[in-house]
Amino acid sequence: MVESTTARASARHRPGVPWGRILAWAALVLLLVITLLPFWVVIKTAFSSQRALFGAAGSLLPADPTLFNFRRALGLASLEEMIAAGGSGQSLNFLLYLRNSVIFTGLIVVFQIFFSAMAAYAFARLKFPGRNLIFLLYLAALMVPGIVLFIPNFVLIRQLGWLNTFQGMVAPYLLMTPFAVFFLRQFFLSLPRELEEAARLDGASPFGIFWRIVLPISQTPLATLAILTTINMWNEYFWPFLVGRQENVRVLTVGLGIFQSQTPQGVPDWTGLMAGTLLSIIPIFLLLLFLGRRIVDSLAFSGLK
Amino acid sequence: MALTTSAEPPRRERSALKRAFTKEALTAWLFILPSFVGFFFFYALPAFRGLMISFTDWNLLRDPNPVGLANYERMLADPLFWNALRVTGLYVLANIPIQTVLGLLLAVLMSRLTTSMFVRGTLILPYLMSNVIVALMWLWLLDPLLGFGNALLQMLGFSRQPFFGSPDQAIWTIAAVNIWRHMGFTALLFYAGMQGIPGSLYEAARIDGASENRMFWNITLPLLRPVTVFVLVTSLIGSFQIFDTVAVTTQGGPVNATRVLVWYIYENAFQFSNMGYATALSMTLFAILIVITLLQLRFLRSDQSDLA
């Protein structure tokens, strides 16, 4: 397809300046610049000194470059230092929030995918009365918007006394999401039955078949789902904001939001905020760097299921 | 389903009962159990409970007090509800068409010019960022005093703009931020869809002397319909639920200009402890989303593809 596109383009090629192609490239480059420029402004601000910021709004380079903002964001600077530098004295307990984000996301990705895969396998392969009805209910749950569930779920978590605990934060996502079950069922339906039949004749139990045969040959969809779930949960804000505000369970998104709302209204601590923002971007950026093609393919696949 | 079972003779009913306890069925129940617990407690029960709460007056402190349809009546007479609906509508109206058209344009550019992973990776980078980070970045970029955006406007000879700080601009600014975030992801979906269109169709069209333009309108666009439907349905449902960006940037202000529906629901539930009214509002949002989805699926004929 790609080759045929190029072939088509060269077949049409007439002598003279290829204005169409130049224009198309210009448009693509412009959109790439619009995409990347904000990230650059974050970087240059994070390395700028707080005092020099006033005179350097439009500059593309850091003003009076310094690493102080990162020390501040990481909670490594003393209060005196911060006040001397003209800051508010607020810091972001970055490493703690990072740890919390890793726990929150990690627990959900592992358990949700495992339990959803078990259910998906039963829906795809095992016969039992009520199978279609239950699956239909799961599908209907795909439609319910977050806010409709968040209020009663918040009430439930509060009644259980799980506010500001990890179990409260992961509970609604830990055992399933309708999307995960649906996604994996579609894949399991397409698996060849022969392998399972052979294992069954050899006396393998249903769980043995699931664990030793179905999961290993499903690595690609499992990885795809793991990537999608990781991105969604790492970036989730509303639910952890409702039930996990306390420092010891606060995840990065919530930490950044609180950090921002605590900086003075008149002159927000922009350099500190951008240092914190930059630190929070790094994990996702590294993920993209190392798993680039996988992530791009996973996201593309999410639209074509 | 239950009706047909009960209408059948008792003998069949017993065998249905037997079928429920075969070895395979028991295994299946065990496989489904953990997910069903999650489904029951965090999807089915809260959906039902939300509906029940919406018929009460409840501040979380004392027991809920049944009030019938009072919350819904209050909603219809509440100017802030209608304002929230209007603001949400404006946001959706700005967001969806621009995001979809820009995404499509980007996808066409990519499919014609480059297969580069770098380009695709760069374009989806904003989508990989959380809403909070994106909102913080743009809050800084569009800062009225020191922001890079205003410095750039001045350099280009335009006047400075208040962006998030102005009642006239705030909701459009929030829409623009989310267009920036989603444009590349939408493009990626369209691009992936375009890869599925057989090159032979274009070859045939070219032999017939069709222009690039015509091929786009007569081949690419119609064959992309399943992707387009997916993009429209999911982004519309998503943009009706805009919350994170508002929470970080404007908190509903200035003067109600960005008090979108979900923010208004959040305020009622978690700031004013008005659980009954908040759930009534959220049930209304749910109803709106169902109607929109059904209308879209009907008009866009999502179940049919032109690619036989």
TrEMBL record, chain A:
Keywords, in A-Z order: Cell membrane, Membrane, Transmembrane, Transmembrane helix, Transport
Full protein name: Binding-protein-dependent transport systems inner membrane component
Location within or outside the cell: Cell membrane
Nuclease is among the record's keywords: no
PROSITE patterns referenced in this protein's UniProt entry, alphabetically: ABC_TM1
PANTHER family: ABC TRANSPORTER PERMEASE PROTEIN MG189-RELATED, ABC TRANSPORTER PERMEASE PROTEIN MG189-RELATED-RELATED
Keyword field contains Transmembrane helix: yes
Pfam families hit by this protein: BPD_transp_1
Membrane topology qualifier: Multi-pass membrane protein
InterPro entries in the cross-refs: MetI-like, MetI-like_sf
First-listed, main subcellular location of the protein, grouped into a coarse class: membrane
Species, as recorded: Truepera radiovictrix (strain DSM 17093 / CIP 108686 / LMG 22925 / RQ-24)
CDD domains found in the cross-reference section: TM_PBP2 (cd06261)
A GO cellular component annotation in the UniProt record: plasma membrane
Entry similarity comment: Belongs to the binding-protein-dependent transport system permease family.
Protein's GO biological process: transmembrane transport
The ABC transmembrane type-1 domain, residue ranges: 98-291
Regions that span the bilayer: 22-43, 102-123, 135-157, 169-188, 209-234, 270-291
From TrEMBL, chain B:
Gene3D superfamilies: MetI-like
Ranges where the ABC transmembrane type-1 domain occurs: 85-296
The UniProt record lists the keyword Transmembrane helix: yes
Keywords: Cell membrane, Membrane, Transmembrane, Transmembrane helix, Transport
Signal sequence region: none
GO BP, one annotated term: transmembrane transport
Source taxon at top rank: Bacteria
Alphabetical list of InterPro entries matching this protein: ABC_transporter_permease, MetI-like, MetI-like_sf
Transmembrane annotation, as ranges: 21-45, 90-110, 122-141, 170-192, 223-243, 275-295
Chief place where the protein resides: membrane
A Pfam match: BPD_transp_1
GO cellular component, one term: plasma membrane
Similarity annotation: Belongs to the binding-protein-dependent transport system permease family.
Protein name: Binding-protein-dependent transport systems inner membrane component
